[in-house]
């Protein structure tokens, strides 16, 4: 094996150390090797992971529901994605950002591509609301921008 030095932010190292302490990984080195193999196997079609017991670690650390990354086929137990978009949009337009966050957190696993997109959509609505004068308040409806009202 080749030794390589990589610098990580302190919070990242602390999270990795907690995973090792909890027994998810035998060591930080195993975490780093597995992580690199995992990303490469998802990025490159022909990449074959070389970490010892890679499949066993993957099955233990990344549950099947997270590996599927959502979908509208009914197998994941998640609502159809476009229904989720409409619901998050409705809550965001009403300034109910916490309710939208709760919906995303309860309907999707962390890291799910649909959850990431919904969170990004919510971030855009939140930024838009922050730019309104006066600023939208949590729980109150949003006011139309000047010039956007119809007669």
Automatic annotation (TrEMBL):
Region (Disordered): 129-151
Designated name of the protein: CopG family transcriptional regulator
Organism, scientific name: Halorubrum tropicale
Origin organism lineage: Archaea, Methanobacteriati, Methanobacteriota, Stenosarchaea group, Halobacteria
